[in-house]
Amino acid sequence: MSLPDSHKPDSIKPRKLADEVQDRLLRLIREDGLGPGDALPSERELMARYEIGRPAIREAMQALQHRGVIDIRHGGRPRVAEPSLDGLIGQLGTGVQHLLAHTSSLDHLKQARAALEAEMARIAARQRSETDIGALESLLAAQELATGEPERFLEIDGKFHRRIAAISANPIFETLVAGIFDWMRAFHVEGVRKRGLEQLTLTEHRAILDAIIAGQAEAAAQAMRDHLERANALYHQDHFQ
Questions:
Q1: Distance between CA 50 and CA 57 in Å, rounded?
Q2: Cβ-based burial of 65 (10 A; exposed 0-12, middle 13-18, buried ≥19)
C-alpha cells in the first residue's frame, strides 16, 4: 500500500562535490572580507584544505568564473572579480536564447521591456539635463545618417534607448534596458528591427525625445510605449502571416 504524500519520506539527495566547493569558496570570500582583485588560495592549497581532488576544485572555479565571481588567469592564482552588471547580463545570454525560443516567453519579455522603458522615459522627462538632451540629439542625428546601414542603425537604436535609461542614474535600470535590447538583437532580431521602417522609427524616437525635452513625463512614457508596442504588433503581423 502506498503512503499518502504527507507521509512519504523526504529524502536528501547527495550534492555534487563541486557544488559544495562553490559554497565553501563563496563563504570564504564573504567571511574573509575579500574584495575585487584579492587572491584566493591556489588549487593545491584548496585540495589540501578540503581533502579532495583537483577535478572538483577546477569545476567549482570554472562555475564561479562563469557566474562572474572570480577571474582565472593562466599562471596566477584565481582572484575575486570586479563586479560588473554588464558582464552579468552578458553571461545570461545562453539561457535567454533558450527562453526566447518559446513564443510565450518572448511575449512576456516584450511586455516587460515596454513597461520598463516607459518608466525610463517618464523619469528622463523629469530628470534630464542639458547634457542628456545633447547626447540624445547627437544619437538621433547619427541614427538618421545611418538609415542606409542596417547594422549601424540598429546599434545606434540600442544606444538611444540605453541613454534614456541612463538619465535615471540607476545603473541597474540602464543595464537591464541595454541587456534586453542586446538579447533580442542577438537571438530574435525581428523584435528590435523591421527593415523598411527606419523613417518611422526615427519619427517615433523624435516624439519620445521631444516629450523628454519638454519635461512632459506622461507624454514621454506614452510615446515610448507606443513605439515599442508598434514594433511588437508589426512582428506579430509578420509572424502570423
A1: 9
A2: middle
Angle, nearest 10°, between helix axes 130-145 and 198-213?
170
Cell of 209: 525625445
Beta bridge mates, 39: 79
Helix axes 198-213, 217-240, angle to 10 degrees: 160
Helix (H, G, I), strand (E, B), or coil: what is residue 57?
A: helix
For residue range 6-60, list pLDDT tens digits in order. 555 555 556 688 889 999 999 999 999 999 899 999 999 999 999 999 999 999 9
Tens digits of residue pLDDT in 97-136: 666 666 677 788 888 999 999 999 999 999 999 999 999 9
pLDDT digits (tens, 9 = 90+) for 78-96: 999 887 666 666 666 666 6
What is the Cα–Cα distance from 235 to 103, expressed in whole angstroms?
12
Judge residue 232's burial from the number of C-beta atoms within 10 Å of its C-beta, 0-12 exposed, 13-18 middle, 19 or more buried.
middle
- Cα separation, 212 vs 207, whole angstroms: 9
Give the containing element (helix H, strand E) for 17.
helix 17-31
CA 23 to chain centre: 25
